[in-house]
From TrEMBL:
Entry keyword Membrane: yes
Organism of provenance: Dreissena polymorpha
Keywords for this protein: Membrane, Transmembrane, Transmembrane helix
Bilayer-crossing regions: 6-24, 29-47, 53-72, 79-101, 107-128, 135-156, 162-195, 202-222, 228-255, 262-288, 294-321
Coiled-coil blocks: none
Domain of life: Eukaryota
Keyword Transmembrane helix: yes
Lineage of the species this protein comes from: Eukaryota, Metazoa, Spiralia, Lophotrochozoa, Mollusca
Name of the protein: Uncharacterized protein
């Protein structure tokens, strides 16, 4: 619009200059005509006073000179007018070239913006793919966390069962110890009876048998105690292993939680990047719309200039044709 207004101002200034030149030429012609009329009047007076034929010839010569002067003035005026029109035409052509260059620059800028828009769309697609991958990883981590929680529950149940078995074994050991104590008491009693019944052989034999039986029972009880102790040791080892496994699972659970948090942070960052890319896309679209509007405006100005040039050319041709017809 600014270029169009400047163009209109230039055209108006040129037209004003043309009008001023025309007025000046007309004034000069009027002055010449007045001078010629005065000369003619003087000549007429001389004709009245002097020889008539010579004065008539002089009068005809003056009229011819006057006609020649008029024709020359008209030609000069037309030449000036043509020169001004040609200058105006050259200015319009230069302005048209400048507008075409500006149009080319805007087209190049439009192409660059389109390329940038395509690159942003590709980045947007890549970010969307990354988001999908991160979501899949989050789902996998959640599944692993669930599995670890189930394993932890199973391990806790196993620990409880082992603790119960340990309690039972301890109770059995206590019972066996009590039985051993009872048997020892019985052995002591039998020994006392042996001392009292040394004289009777049958009773002595019976007591010996009883002592042997009690010793066998004591050995069996000792073996049972050893077995129970071994079982207790095994159970304690199992408990230790389960506790270690439980600790490892807890550590793995913590690591998975940390990974989950990191993935969530990465997801948030990607979402922010997506928002920024969307904003950039909107800005680029607005710039493209503005460029399109500028291109349309430039095309309109170029069309108007071409129409003005055609009008000027037609006007010059008509003036030349009329002048040629006049001559």
């Amino acid at each position: 619009m600014i270029l169009y207004n400047l163009l209109l101002l230039l055209l108006l200034l040129l037209l004003l200059l043309l009008l001023l030149l025309l007025l000046l030429l007309l004034l000069l012609l009027l002055l010449l005509l007045l001078l010629l009329l005065l000369l003619l009047l003087l000549l007429l007076l001389l004709l009245l006073l002097q020889q008539q034929l010579l004065l008539l010839l002089l009068l005809l010569l003056l009229l011819l000179l006057l006609l020649l002067l008029l024709l020359l003035r008209l030609r000069l005026l037309l030449l000036l007018l043509l020169l001004l029109l040609l200058l105006l035409l050259l200015l319009l052509l230069l302005l048209l070239l400048l507008l075409l260059l500006l149009l080319l620059l805007l087209l190049l800028l439009l192409l660059l913006l389109l390329l940038l828009l395509l690159l942003l769309l590709l980045l947007l697609l890549l970010l969307l793919l990354l988001l999908l991958l991160i979501l899949l990883l989050l789902l996998l981590l959640l599944l692993l966390l669930l599995l670890l929680l189930l394993l932890l529950l199973l391990l806790l149940q196993l620990l409880l069962l082992l603790l119960l078995l340990l309690l039972l074994l301890l109770l059995l050991l206590l019972l066996l110890l009590l039985l051993q104590l009872l048997l020892l008491l019985l052995l002591l009693l039998l020994l006392l009876l042996l001392l009292l019944l040394l004289l009777q052989q049958l009773l002595l034999l019976l007591l010996l048998l009883l002592l042997l039986l009690l010793l066998l029972l004591l050995q069996l009880l000792l073996l049972l105690q050893l077995l129970l102790l071994l079982l207790l040791l095994l159970l304690l080892l199992l408990l230790l292993l389960l506790l270690l496994l439980l600790l490892l699972l807890l550590l793995l659970l913590l690591l998975l939680l940390l990974l989950l948090l990191l993935l969530l942070l990465l997801l948030l960052l990607l979402l922010l990047l997506l928002l920024l890319l969307l904003l950039l896309l909107l800005l680029l679209l607005l710039l493209l719309l503005l460029l399109l509007l500028l291109l349309l405006l430039l095309l309109l100005i170029i069309i108007i200039i071409i129409i003005i040039i055609i009008i000027i050319i037609v006007t010059i041709n008509t003036i030349l044709f009329k002048f040629h017809c006049f001559l």
